[in-house]
Each structure stands twice: as structure tokens, then as C-alpha cells.
Amino acid sequence: MERPGRLLLLSELRVRNTAYDVSLSRSLLTWKRRISSPVYHPFRPRFCVPSFPRRPDSGVCHSVSVSEIISVREEEEENSSRQRDDGSWKKIKEREGKDCRQAFTVLYVERCRQHRWRCAEVTFTCPEEALYQRWVSSIREQLASITSRPKHLLVYINPYGGKRQGKHIYEQKVAPLFAQAGVSTHVIVTEYANYARDHLRTEAELKKFDGVVCVGGDGMFSEIIHGLIWRTQIDGSVDPNCPDQTLLPSSLHIGIIPAGSTDCICFATVGTNDPVTSALHIIVGDSQPMDVCSVHHNNTFLRYSVSLLGYGFYGDVLTDSERKRWMGPARYDLSGVKMFLTHHYYEGTVSYLPARGIVGTPRDAAKCRSGCVVCQHNGQLLSKRAENYTMDEDSESDGEWRTIRGKFLAINAASMSCACPRSPKGLSPAAHLADGTTDLILVRKCSRFDFLRHLLRHTSKDDQFDLTFVEVHRVRRFRFTPRYCQSDSDLELDLRENGKRQIFSQICRDHPACGCAPAYSSWNCDGEILTHTAIDVRVHCQLIKLFARGIEEPTVFEDLTNPCAI
Ligand SMILES: CCCCCCCCCCCCC/C=C/[C@@H](O)[C@H](COP(=O)(O)O)NC(=O)CCCCC
Ligand SMILES: Nc1ncnc2c1ncn2[C@@H]1O[C@H](COP(=O)(O)OP(=O)(O)O)[C@@H](O)[C@H]1O
Ligand SMILES: [Ca+2]
């Protein structure tokens, strides 16, 4: 827990008619109940309550970090009460022509189960108005000194994401919290796909805002980063089409109010997909850097990705599910079962540049958590390398490219854990949000039974990588070429390696009447289908910042004292 530091205020105030010692420092607001110690009175055969000064015992003590106070509300007259000369308290009557308010309410973050946050409140009553004024203005001064809190936000709502509840969720759960916290908003309900992206690219007056918030799923978040990153590069004269360019980071933070189907980006950065929790992380001005992959084809920019780039199984699930959008989030389950039964595999070549000199591997037991030291270390290392940047920086510092040819059921690149309600540990449980790498997971052709074992392990404690047909590499860059796109020399190499069998299978594949497996899948890029299959992917370390703090480890203290967490 935070140490209180020098006290700015210390007073006896009342909470629900009980006396508390309340203190405020630059970092903490603390209120501790004064429980009257019963003392024996020699002339009366019973215990009595002593008068002032009373000894505070080790009674109930609450502490709130100033950084997690949402706001202070001045209460109306009726709630005020006043201390009598004899030490007791009475309701005060309205004094004619005078402002004599004496109660104020502090709204603050309270931690609940499973990384959820709630807005809790406590009302303090002061014995006199001057003291009341000091308390209200001191807390407000402390809040005003936190410069990281957003004051003006640009909000985009996708009314068609998830269960089509985006607008309702924003209006009912989020807007009232922003209003209480004094955050002003400009809200835009999107009219069609890519509306938010194009608005951010060309029209939005970004200088007016401290951040951009999207209400929707991963697809909506993807629109926002495409608009923001593109705009930042064009404004800074950086060519987004060149895969070797170092991209400029966007200065605006991005907030996600989850209202989509998978909400993986929200879940993996906050630990839950709860709109109130996300709104509170935005209000307190949390900051979480995040890696972004750029995806190119033949030196032409295709897309950015922050969570999953999946070819084969996850690409096919997405393509199939888009035809079932009317079903809402359940479309993924149906398409998942269908694609599992279809059991398509795809041939191609994967080349990758292993991440060298960095801390962490995809098989680590430790996970990326709030204040992650792996992300901090690798972020510093990579930014130092970028300072001494040369065009062949990657090959010099990371070693040599490696190549794998084969038949794959799935090729996945997870730039973060990709934890979501379907798989709370995610596709790559030890992946990091901001370490400048992505975990390349290759699932080779295997039986349906074995693939099911692999998939089921995403939902249990068992290791999904501990299978002979699965390999995982932590990489900074990778390329994929499907077999049908391979150059003549690569195909010749294949022929020499695999013999005649390959020639016949290729003929068969080019012949739809055979009814055999298709030659190519498509890429699932954060839930959007990519138009190209041959791609070149590069990780840009900590390119964007979210209003989040990573998943917090629950502390023993919170579990014991917070009734909401039980
Ligand atoms: C038989 C048991 C199978 C259990 C498999 C569970 C594996 C789940 C891993 C899910 C990883 C999800 C990665 C995130 C992808 C999202 O970006 C994407 C779009 O989200 P949204 O815009 O909110 O709709 N979602 C998907 O591609 C859905 C994948 C579902 C796979 C079953
Ligand atoms: N007003 C709109 N009408 C139709 N599609 C939209 C609209 N706004 C955004 N979209 C698109 O909807 C798709 C899905 O959005 P998303 O918020 O991720 O929901 P889901 O999680 O259900 O997929 C994205 O491709 C996004 O570009
Ligand atoms: Ca990463």
C-alpha cells in the first residue's frame, strides 16, 4: 500500500453519524473510525463512554489513493449535521442568506472481483463550514494536479457491434461517470464501417482532445488505431507504406469501452470486459503502452494489428462467422465448431526473425501484469537500438532469419496474450503487451483429436504449446508465403525435399472438382479479414498508449478488507 507522506489535512469528521479521523496527504485519503474505549467508572457500576480526547483504536480504516479519487461532490443542506458543544452532533437548520453546507461526498475507485472496478462513495460531515471548505478545495487541488487525467474526449460508438448495445451501454453506464468526473465529451455514433477511421484520418480536430474512446469490439478499436496511426505518420511525413520505416507514436491515449463480440483487447489490457471498469480507468488517466504490428504486402501497407494475426483456423472461423453476423457473438462458437470439423490445413513458408537480447520467452510461467518489468526492460532496449538505427538494424541485433516450410492447421501471431472470456489465459499466456515482440505459434497438420486437445488447453491450466505438432517462437518480424504463391525456385526446393507426391497434391488442389482442401486461407487481423495471404509483419514497440494499466495482481490486503471482493 502507498505511504501517506506529509499530511495536508487531519480532522475529526463524521461518516454516517460516526466519528472518524480523516487525513489527506498528496497520495492518500484515509478515514479511520474512532471507537470509544469503554473505561470503568468507580462510582457507577457500569462502563461509560469517555469524552474528548478519545483514544482511536485499531478500528476500521479505509484508504484511497488520491490518484483513484473520481471527484468530490458538495452535498445539499439536508445532509449536514453539526457538533454540539457537548460533543454530540445534531442536524443544522438552514441559515438565512448564508451558504452553510457542511457535507461532501468523495467518489472513488473500489476494486471488486475479477479485476472489476466500481465507483464507491463516502460522505463526510464537517463540524463547521470553514473546515468543510478547506476539505473540498484541498481534495480538488490534489485532483487538479494530476496532469495525466483526460478533460476532453472524442468518443466513437459502433451501434452495431456485439449485441448492438453500444449506444445503450455508453449512455447508461459510461456518460454519467464522465459527467461526475468533469470529463467533457464529443460523441459520434458511427454511420457505417470505417466511419471512425476516416473521420480520424482527415477531419477530427485532434488538438482539442486528450484522448479517443471507442465503444465497440476489437474491430472498432482497430478502426481507431488505423485512423490515429495513419494521421500521425502523414502529419510527421513518415511513409506508412515502407515496412522498414520507424513509425511515429501517437500522442493521444485510446480508451476502450467494451461492447463487442470478443473484446479481447480490452480483456487482455484490463483483465475484464466491463464498461464501468474501463470508464474508470479512462477517468483516472491510466496509461498502458502497447505494441503494434504493421502488415505489408509487396511494400504496400495492408493493416495494423495489436492482438491476433491468424491464418488457417482463426482466419476461416472469421470468414465463416461474418456471414452469420445476425447471430451476434454466438456466431464465433458456431463457426468455430464448423471449422474444427472441416479440419483444413494449408501449405506455405514462414520466415521469422527471432527476438534476441530481450527478456522473456513464450513458455514463461510469469505473465505480463501491471507495471511489467519485462515490457519496461525490452522497451528501453529496443528504443536504444532504434536510436542507432540502420536499415539492416533487425538482422544485426536480432540474428538471422529462419525459415519453416510445412502444412499448418493454424499460424497465429499473438502480440499480447489475447485473453478473452472464451479463453481467460489466451492464445499465448506469457505474451507481453509492450515488449516489442509477437509470439508466432505454428500448429502443424495433425489429427482432429490432437487439434481438439490443443484447442481445449486454451481453456484449462494445461500448456497448449506442450504438444509435438505445436511450436512457438518470440519474434520481431515474420513473413508468410502460401505455397501457391511461392517462387519457382522455392517450389523446386519443395519438390526436391518432398518428391513426386507434392506434384500430384498440387494438381489436385488446383482442381475444384476433387473436393479436396482449399489452397489458401485468409488472415484474421484483430477480427478483420485481410485481402492478401502473402504478408510481411513487423512489430513496432510501444507505438500506442491505452487508458489502461495492464492486469493487476490482486493483493491480499484488498481481498481481506474489501467486502465487494468477497
Ligand atoms: C473446443 C473448444 C475451443 C476453445 C478455443 C478457445 C480459443 C479461443 C481463443 C480466442 C482468441 C481470440 C483472439 C481475438 C480475436 C478478436 O480480435 C476477434 C474479433 O473480435 P471482435 O471484433 O470483438 O468480434 N475475434 C475472433 O476472431 C473470434 C475468434 C473465436 C474463435 C473461436
Ligand atoms: N455504423 C456501423 N455500421 C456497420 N458497421 C460498422 C459501423 N461502425 C463500425 N462498424 C464495423 O463493424 C465491425 C465490427 O465492429 P466491432 O465493434 O468490432 O463489433 P464485433 O465485436 O461484434 O465484431 C467493424 O468492422 C467495424 O468497422
Ligand atoms: Ca508484445
From TrEMBL:
One MF annotation (Gene Ontology) recorded for this entry: ceramide kinase activity
One of the GO BP terms on file: ceramide metabolic process
Cellular component terms (Gene Ontology): membrane
Pfam families cross-referenced by the UniProt entry: CERK_C (PF19280), DAGK_cat (PF00781), PH_CERK (PF25382)
Domain DAGKc: 148-299
PANTHER family according to UniProt: CERAMIDE KINASE (PTHR12358:SF25), SPHINGOSINE KINASE (PTHR12358)
Annotated protein name in UniProt: Ceramide kinase
Organism: Dicentrarchus labrax (European seabass)
Gene: LOC127352925
